[in-house]
Amino acid sequence: MSDRPSALGAIATEIADCYACARLVEWRERAPSHQRSIGDADQYWAKAVPGFGDAEARLLIVGLAPAAHGANRTGRMFTGDRSGDFLFAALYRANLASQPTSTSRMDGLVLHDVYVTSAVHCAPPDNKPTRDERHACARFLSREVSALANVRVVLALGAFALEALLGEGGLSLRDGTRAKFAHAAEFAATAADRDVTLVSSYHPSQRNVFTGLLTTEMFDAVMLRVGTLVGT
Predict the structure, then answer these.
(1) How many CB atoms neighbour CB 223 within 10 A?
(2) Which domain holds residue 65?
(3) I want to staple 68 with a disulfide (CB 3.0 to 4.6 A). Which of 31, 175, 179, 230 is the partner?
């Protein structure tokens, strides 16, 4: 029996107990009192948010960081905000999620062959984590990449996630070159002792979707491509 669930569970516990970055700790804990707070302030997770999904996943999706009133409120990546609405609807259409919505940790959502995490695990002010904060979280990302031994495709949502993965996040390009971010770009990479395909996409942020930088059709095309690469 695989020990991946227990390994990922241990990483998740360490993430939730992390207080490494004072700026992020202060912001995540103050989020319930923000003007834009949602619902009962006492119900906010307000801690570092672990990754979640299928421990046997062949597809790993890496985002930027939790939103102050999304994952920082619900305690689950991409859950409870419009970015998550966009992401999980696309995963559902690609038959990689059991339902198209994600509203709470207890909503019954199950991911199929997918694990979702982020470059930084705490909600940052203005949704802009620093490079130092990314550096502090890299130990978690690299361990997740290593623990998810079945992963063959990694989808980076945004340039920040791409840089995190190829910086200290456990991936390196096989040809030794530097990756230049572009939507739907593909890179031959290595993760631990195995080859993977690294794909980059615009992040499904509210701004990117509302401005048309990322459309449903564009994101579905990326999901179709990663599904083909994974072999679903």
Answers:
(1) 23
(2) 4-33+44-230
(3) 31
pLDDT-based confidence at residue 112 (cuts at 50, 70, 90): very high
Question: CB–CB of 133/120 below 8 Å?
Answer: yes
Instruction: Give how many domains the chain has, as a whole number.
Output: 1
Q: Per residue in 185-224, pLDDT tens?
A: 999 999 978 999 999 999 999 999 999 999 999 999 999 9
Query: Counting every residue, how long is the chain?
Result: 232
* pLDDT tens per residue across span 130-173: 999 999 999 999 999 999 999 999 999 999 999 999 989 999 99
| Other beta carbons within 10 Å of 192 | 14
Alpha-carbon distance values, 108 to 66, 98, 100, 102, 111 (Å): 20, 8, 11, 9, 10
d(CA 166, CA 159): 11
pTM above 0.85, yes or no: yes
- Residue 102, classed as helix, strand or coil, is coil
Cα–Cα distances (Å) from 10 to 17, 39, 61, 154, 169, in that order, read 11, 30, 19, 22, 18
Please report whether residue 39 resides in a domain.
no
| Rg (the chain; Cα; Å) | 16
